[in-house]
Structures are given as C-alpha cells and as structure tokens.
Amino acid sequence: MEKKKVNINHEDVVIRVDNVSKSFGDLHVLRDVDLQLFNGENLVVLGRSGTGKSVLIKLISGLLKPDKGDIHVLGEIVNHLDERELRALRQRIGFSFQNSALYDSMTVRENLEFPLVRNKRNLTRAEIDKEVEEVLEGVGLLQAINQMPSELSGGQRKRIGIARTLILRPDIMLYDEPTAGLDPLTCLDINSLINQVQEQYHTSSIIITHDLSCAKMVGDRMVMLLDGKFERQGTFEEIFNTDDERVKPFYDYNFID
C-alpha cells in the first residue's frame, strides 16, 4: 500500500537532537547522535532490540536526561526544563506506549476522560462527551465506548491507546513499537491509523520500530540506529540498498522466509 503524500515543512524543525549521548554504566546506548524531525513528518527510527530506540523517545519526552548534548522540542530545550515546564510541554506530546497503557479498572470512556479532565478542568460534561466520542470515532471504535480493556483485542487496545493520546490534540506523536505483538492484518490496520492520524490531526511523529513492513508503510523518512549512531537515513530503498553486513540481516529477517 502506497503512502499518501503529505505536506512537510522542512523549514520548521519541531524536534532537534544535538550531539546527544546516553549510557547506563558501561553500556553506551547513544553516542553523539544528531536527529531532526520536521513539521508534518512521519520519521521512522529503525534498529534491533536493545539498540536505544526507546531510550531516544524517553529522552525526547524528558523521562530520561542525556549525559551529553541537548534535545530541542517545540522550541524548548527539554533537558533544561523543570518539572512544571516539562508537564506543560508533555501536554503537546502524545506518547503511544507499546502495551497501550490503559487502566484495566476503567471503561474505554473513563480511560479517555482521565487525561482530558486532569489537564482541562474547565470542560463541561457535554464537552467531555463530545471529545471522547470524536476521537473514538476517529480510530473506528465508538462502539467500544462502554467496554472494559479486557474485553478488547490487542489491536483494539492499541487503537484506544492512540485515541487516549489524541484526546489532548498533541502536536507531536511518539509511537513505541506500535505493531509489536499484533497479527499481520491488525498490523496493517495500525499502520493505516498512524497515517490517518498524521493526515487528520496534522501531527509530526517519530515511530520506533523493528518491523520493516510498518516502516515502509508509514515512514516519510527513515533513520537506522547502528552501534549507538544514526549510520543511515533516507527512504526505505536508500537505507537497504547496501552491502553493509549490519543492515542486510535485518532486512532478511523481516522479508525472507
């Protein structure tokens, strides 16, 4: 399935990672990395498990601090912000967790109401209902509004998790392994939803994945994390048109039986 062309403003950098390093003891996860995300772009970060992809988005959202370098998000230097400033910035960043991060004791409606009521305290009951119904309709699950997460499939939970993130109308979306643990047909549905979110909500997104089918379907541009650095970037074809022995097995695992 071909990805639709979207308007990307290459003059407007919404995330800039400058010379960032991060280690955990003797494990050097990121080594002097640089990265830019443009306004309106879906940027895919590829890499094997344990290569630092998830660490990268935790740094971007301020959940971790870099050992070196700066991370600029929507005009703010994330690693220089205090907790109050970080909370304000995070309202503009949607974080789609790998496990959907729904509250099992709450209905779908209550899961979506929770961030809305916590961050926008002056909304009326009618306004809350409207917001919840709109985002559920946007992900195709309005009929699940009164169900419990345990009653939903993995793909449905993933969609509800994305809806809960969208309810605050973020400028940036961060997706952590959005297709992990899903069957191939449900993966296609989630990939289509990521593209739909980009088009409908005009988001700029970073998609962390090792699923090359996902990368090919949703990415406007891709970067590959190898040995703690972004060694390759460009289109899917540009990244994998190589004899680099670090890259070829990654492609073969995804596409060769």
TrEMBL record:
It comes from the Bacteria. One of its GO terms (molecular function) is ATP hydrolysis activity. SMART domains: AAA. Coiled coil: none annotated. Residues 15-252 form the ABC transporter domain. Keywords: ATP-binding, Nucleotide-binding, Transport. InterPro entries: AAA+_ATPase, ABC_transporter-like_ATP-bd, ABC_transporter-like_CS, P-loop_NTPase. It holds the Pfam family ABC_tran. This is ATP-binding cassette domain-containing protein. The lineage of its organism: Bacteria, Pseudomonadati, Bacteroidota, Sphingobacteriia, Sphingobacteriales.
